[in-house]
């Protein structure tokens, strides 16, 4: 502080047009402060807080000058980054050891992971690709089992996918959000209607009410199962399986979203696993990044890719193919900034089953990684939590079919579930994926209507029950045609 | 003063520098905020010194770029005065923590 400054108790700071007067502490005040600091650390905080205002004022001045002198600002910024680079490298190397011990790092990266997790996992599963194309380019298709699917061209939110088979079963893609979930509920209800064919005098009103109840029930069951609303990328297959002696219907529901449900749910148990997996994966990447010797670094990358290849269960791929599928990705990841690597954590997780299996045996997760395409992997976590039966075999089969037909794996997987539903009905040992039954209560028409109204009021008063044939287009003959109940 | 309290205070000053100095962009600030825990005291001071120097350097070079804009002179002069004030205050706090002052 200059002698001149010391002689003034106050000073004008900031631009002339927006004069900000900040009282500048006298030197003696600072000295007094220094003494007080030795016994009272909070005084330091207070002093720093006061300075915070000055910093903000200073910063706003800087921002104005930056706008006036952008060339200088850019050069200074680039230089600063370079100047701080050695320290930044030190930080990264040390974080390999301490990560994620600081709450701050955890919070930042966890937020980013949560934001990115669903997108990345769905993308790896082929769902994004499906959503971009469904309803637009692929309108009909026949799957390997010979089922013919029709797509409903009706515009729906996110162009969700509703298909029905010749056997009267239904596949739905797009369970995200309430609106989409409602669509799925409708389809469940419609499937329920198919079952009602056996009833001689179906009551349309009763059917519509039952449809909502069944849909509501299914949503709740799925929510209870996954710990949250099922959003995004879930595919659903339904089939009426059984009419119970009391008149209730059991509708089988299989959805392939369960493959990653265990990864993304906010449930503490699932989160713990996910976090553990992320950290293991990131630590491996940090180990490579911290290696400054290029030869050793290359060796680490090679070893990393080989480890992944050894743990890759994908069929029809040689070891070298699996290894090469990972090599370029790893090289890309290790060259990213720390921030970007954090964003890539979900993808890393998919590749890193060896770490999980080796280090986290106590979690008892049966994890497998599948290479869907070069650079595109899917991880499956299976344990009691997800209640998955025969999942690996199903995925292996789905991958083969998808590769042969150039189709998204998850889509094929759902069809396989449906196939199992159609062939085996309620027997659990011939179906993969999550399986549940939704029991449709045998209530009176009035009771059903009351329940429907109550539910609609709770969720969305504007909810409209689709009229007969709402999903069906006479001209194109796409969609689901409800049985004639009149 | 315990090491923990000392560290808390240094952290506050460090975060002020990271947040308050303009030579970093938003994402870099996130990174540097999170880096405090793994840096030694001396390294923190070093980072602050570098950031402060770069900020002063920015003012000096901006003067050249803006020499044809007299309306910017007042702004730049005010920033220089503020820089000196802030430096003095921060150094007082660092000394109180028995840490090296910025130069």
Please describe what this structure looks like.
The complex is a heterodimer of chains A (486) and B (103). Chain A is built from 18 helices and 13 strands. In chain A, the strands form 4 sheets. Chain A has a 7-stranded antiparallel sheet, sandwiched between helices. A two-stranded antiparallel ribbon of chain A has the order 1-2. A two-stranded antiparallel ribbon of chain A has the order 9-10. Helix content of chain A is 56%, strand content 13%. In chain A, strand 7 (235-243) and strand 8 (249-255) form a beta hairpin. With 103 residues, chain B is an all-alpha fold. Chain B has one domain (3-96). Chain B has 4 helices and no strands. Chain B has helices at 3-20, 26-35, 41-65, 73-96. The radius of gyration of chain B is 15 Å and the shape is globular. Chains A and B meet through strand 1, helix 2, helix 3, helix 4 and helix 5 of A and helix 1, helix 2, helix 3 and helix 4 of B. Chain A: It comes from Candidatus Abawacabacteria bacterium RBG_16_42_10. Chain A: InterPro entries: PPM-type-like_dom_sf (IPR036457). Chain A: This is PPM-type phosphatase domain-containing protein.
Brief overview:
By secondary structure, chain A is an alpha+beta fold. Helices cover 56% and strands 13% of the residues of chain A.
Defining traits:
heterodimer, A: 486 residues, alpha+beta, 2 domains, 7-stranded antiparallel beta sheet, two-stranded antiparallel ribbon, 18 helices, 13 strands, disordered N terminus, B: 103 residues, mainly alpha, 75% helix, globular, PPM-type-like_dom_sf (chain A)
Unreliable stretches of chain B (pLDDT < 50, length at least 5) are none
Helical proportion of chain B? over 70%
User: Helical amount among residues of chain A, as a percent range?
Assistant: 55-70%
- The average pLDDT value of chain A, as a whole number, equals 45
Major sheet size, sense and barrel closure of chain B: none
Rg result of chain B: 15 Å
Q: In DSSP terms, counting alpha (H) and pi (I) runs of 4 or more, how many helices of chain B?
A: 4
Largest interface, by Cβ-Cβ below 8 angstroms: which chains and how many residues each?
A: A-B, 64 and 62 residues
Spans of chain A with pLDDT under 50 lasting ≥5 residues?
1-46, 96-241, 247-281, 342-392, 424-443, 455-486
Indicate the mean pLDDT of chain B.
Answer: 73
Radius of gyration of chain A: 30 Å
Major sheet of chain A: 7 strands, antiparallel
Spatial strand arrangement across the major sheet of chain A: 3-4-5-6-7-8-11
Estimate nothing, just give the exact number of structural domains of chain A. Answer: 2
- What's the number of domains of chain B? 1
Mass-distribution shape of chain A:
globular
Quantity of strands of chain A, as a count: 13
What's the multimeric state? Answer: heterodimer
- The amount of beta strand of chain B, in percent, is under 5%
Structural class of chain A: alpha+beta
């Amino acid at each position: 502080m200059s002698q001149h400054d010391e002689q003034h108790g106050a000073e004008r700071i900031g631009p002339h047009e927006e004069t900000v007067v900040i009282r500048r502490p006298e030197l003696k005040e600072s000295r007094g402060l220094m003494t007080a600091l030795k016994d009272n650390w909070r005084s330091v905080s207070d002093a720093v807080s006061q300075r915070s205002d000055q910093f903000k004022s200073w910063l706003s001045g800087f921002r104005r000058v930056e706008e006036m002198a952008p060339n200088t600002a850019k050069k200074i910024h680039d230089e600063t980054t370079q100047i701080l680079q050695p320290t930044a490298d030190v930080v990264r190397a040390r974080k390999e050891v301490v990560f994620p011990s600081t709450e701050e790092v955890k919070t930042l990266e966890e937020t980013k992971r949560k934001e990115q997790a669903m997108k990345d996992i769905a993308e790896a599963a082929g769902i994004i690709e499906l959503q971009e194309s469904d309803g637009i380019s692929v309108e009909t298709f026949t799957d390997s089992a010979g089922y013919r699917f029709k797509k409903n061209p009706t515009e729906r939110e996110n162009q969700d996918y509703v298909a029905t088979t010749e056997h009267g079963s239904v596949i739905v893609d797009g369970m995200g959000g309430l609106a989409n979930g409602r669509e799925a509920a409708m389809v469940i209800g419609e499937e329920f209607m198919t079952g009602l064919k056996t009833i001689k005098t179906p009551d349309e009103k009763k059917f519509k009410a039952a449809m909502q109840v069944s849909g509501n029930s299914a949503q709740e069951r799925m929510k209870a199962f996954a710990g949250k609303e099922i959003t995004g990328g879930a595919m659903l297959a339904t089939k009426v399986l059984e009419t119970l002696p009391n008149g209730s219907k059991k509708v089988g529901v299989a959805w392939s979203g369960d493959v990653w449900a265990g990864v993304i749910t906010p449930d503490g148990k699932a989160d713990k696993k996910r976090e553990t997996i992320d950290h293991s994966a990131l630590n491996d990447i940090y180990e490579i990044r911290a290696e400054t010797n290029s030869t050793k670094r290359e060796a680490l990358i090679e070893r990393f890719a080989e480890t992944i290849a050894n743990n890759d269960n994908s069929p029809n791929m040689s070891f070298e193919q699996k290894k090469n599928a990972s090599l370029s990705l790893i090289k890309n990841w290790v060259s990213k900034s720390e921030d970007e690597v954090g964003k890539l954590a979900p993808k890393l997780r998919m590749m890193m089953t060896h770490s999980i299996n080796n280090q986290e045996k106590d979690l008892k997760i049966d994890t497998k990684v599948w290479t869907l395409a070069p650079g595109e992997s899917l991880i499956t976590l299976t344990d009691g939590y997800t209640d998955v039966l025969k999942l690996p075999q199903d995925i292996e089969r789905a991958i083969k079919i998808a590769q042969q037909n150039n189709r998204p794996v998850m889509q094929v997987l759902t069809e396989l579930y449906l196939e199992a539903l159609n062939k085996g009905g309620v027997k659990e040992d011939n179906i993969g994926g999550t399986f549940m039954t939704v029991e449709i209560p045998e209530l009176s028409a009035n009771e059903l209507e009351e329940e429907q109204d109550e539910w609609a009021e709770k969720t969305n008063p504007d909810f409209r029950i689709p009229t007969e044939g709402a999903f069906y287009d006479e001209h194109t003959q796409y969609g689901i045609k409800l049985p004639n109940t009149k | 003063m315990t090491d923990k309290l000392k560290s808390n205070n240094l952290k506050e000053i460090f975060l002020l520098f990271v947040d308050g100095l303009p030579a970093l962009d938003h994402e870099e600030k996130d990174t540097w905020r999170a880096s405090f825990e793994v840096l030694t005291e001396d390294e923190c001071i070093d980072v602050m010194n570098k950031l402060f120097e770069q900020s002063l350097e920015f003012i000096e070079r901006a003067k050249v770029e803006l020499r044809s804009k007299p309306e910017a002179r007042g702004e730049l002069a005010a920033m220089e005065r503020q820089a000196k004030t802030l430096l003095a205050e921060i150094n007082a706090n660092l000394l109180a923590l028995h840490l090296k002052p910025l130069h």
